[in-house]
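Technical appendix A lists one of the benchmark inputs used to test multi-chain prediction within the project. The record comprises two sequence entries:
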Amino acid sequence: MIVQQIISGLAVGCVYGLIAIGFVLIFKTTGVINFAQGEIMMLGAFVSFTLITFFNVPFILAFLLTPIICGGLGILLERVLIRPLVGEPVVSIIIVTIGLSITLRAFAGMIWSYDTLDFPHLFSEEAIKIGSIVIAPVDISVILITLGLVILLFLFFKFTTMGISLQSSAQNPLASLLMGISVKKVYSMTWAISAMVGAVAGMIIAPITFLSVNMGFLGLKAFPAAIIGGFNSIPGAIVGGVIIGISENLAGIYLPPWVKDIFAYLVMMAVLMIRPEGIFGTHEQKKV
Amino acid sequence: MNIVDFRESYSQDFRIFDKFYKWGWIAFLVAGIVVLSQTSGDYGAYLLNLIFINIIAAVGLNILTGFTGLISLGHAAFMAIGAYTSSILTVKLGVPFWLALPASGALTGLIGFVVGLPSLRLTGIYLALATMAFGFVTDEIILQWQSLTRGADGFAAIPPIIFGMTFDSYKKYFFITFISLAILLFVAKNMTRGSFGRTLMAIRDSETAAETMGVNLGWYKALAFTVSAIYAGLAGSLYAHFILFVSVDNFTLLHSIGFIVMVVVGGLGSITGSVMGAIFITILPEIISFTKDYLPSAFKTASSLQAAVYGIILMLFVIYQPAGFYGLWVKIKNWWRTFPL
């Protein structure tokens, strides 16, 4: 029972972690949090759903096409909404992303209706039994895809020129500009990557939970994940997500059932009181 | 005479209205609103009440976000606490309304003070997320504390009775919200034009500079939260006795965001702006349903049209008109004054 809960918590936690990576990437390079990340995840799920059921695209191809479409959307959003606001107070940019999330949800509602839809299953729904433990193949696929994506991101940031220039402009935009890095390009790349990661998160969570316009609210649960891991650490986001996913499931067993829904936020409040920079985050000294 | 009216002395800056004749406009406006509320039918009175309550909440949030620079995504939760306190006091304990209203403000203010304490350590996004979490946790506590709040069923409030008069219709209730609004606007204006408001603005513009000038950051930030929460609590209490039914569905994250929209659209750091923003956002659904007939049929039936317009307006305002309606107003005024130039 406990092992099962831990594994399903791990799978959900991976998805929280993926959404949190989207927050962290944008926060690291641009100092902004994107409240629309959950909605981008929802769009990812719906785009792949439309590709598969409406255009009859094979599953694997849809899985590759969706991140590309969402990445393009990310570039567009950055260009239209965020670029004009560079240098404005963070509060204004947060408010723009809140407006974006409301708008995206409304348009998605117009296009795909507010009904809860069934996402086609890629894996058999028959559970795998190991001894007395029952594991759903979907959970395993989620964990493996997340692992693969994190390795891919790690390689990207470590070994490609683009990745390294992303890192450098996160640390010091002015110095990177002087070194010949186009910070504008870096900003749109950041949005593209975080939208891609969000799209993948949407595609892998839809089979576990549900496919609905309101699934973007799941993105709110990724805030605790990012806070716990540290808002400027990519591995921290995954670790935070997994901690939230597992502890939430365990809270569902050992504590009164209603605690499960707000457990993530309680943990987040506690972390903010004790150590606001999270587990892996670094404290930034503000210059006067 | 100056072409553009610069303020040349502190006494000019401290004045409630820069020109004396504006008091006349206010008297005219008050008379107009009272006549409008009593002649415009039940729905008109309903809208006016709703506008006034939203103005109170928006002004409170503006003191926090516009004047102090602290963002709160949990303001609907303060309103929920005020609404529940007031309705529980009047229904379960039989406390009269004129006592329950300030009591709900006081309790919300106390909670606001406690919520505001961590704001010394948490800034920007961290504070936004902490207040968001506060909102979720408050809603859940209200839902689960069924013996007191009746949980998900919601709580039926009673119309207020003052001096034996029952304010049971929207037209009668108008006087309660209108007088509360007038008092609260006056208090807000006085608070923000005096030393308290200037301290808050100093904190907003540079925390380090304010601290160097001897401002106790933690104390003033917590006070800003307290004042803001009191306004939200009073708005919540007025809302409860107006709608006569409270449930957590009326105080979600989306409602908190709605108040932020009012403040931003009206203009951060301006009481007049918050009034404009609250009026605009409250009657926006009416404007949309009025213009619906002229729209292409694809949009006409969409239930989410209102949300889409909401979101788009929010984005457009921040990008193209960051100073909000108030900034636009000032711009037009100055353009008019310097017209031939």
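Chain A touches chain B through 43 residues (CB under 8 Å). The CA atoms of residues 43 and 100 of chain A lie 13 Å apart. Comparable benchmark entries are summarised in Table A2.
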